[in-house]
Amino acid sequence: MTETQTSRARTLIGKVVSDKRNKTVTVLVERRVKHDLYSKIMIRSSKYHAHDENNEYQVGDVIEISESRPMSKTKAWVATRLIEKAALI
Could you tell me if residue 64 is inside a domain? Predict the structure, then answer.
């Protein structure tokens, strides 16, 4: 095989809501969906556990995560890049 393979892994953007565990962050991803009957825009959210090798992301940071192989029972995502740093209060 001389062709280069492109990564087909899904990527999501969300906010870090927990960084208490070692090398793991919990990311809240929100999406907007339209209700089938009432046509109201609703916000649905999901939490994902992502691998953070260097413990570099803090609570409040907006990051991008991408799909990877399962690393533990609940962790199958990797934090790939920082999009927006959390504002200091």
Answer: yes
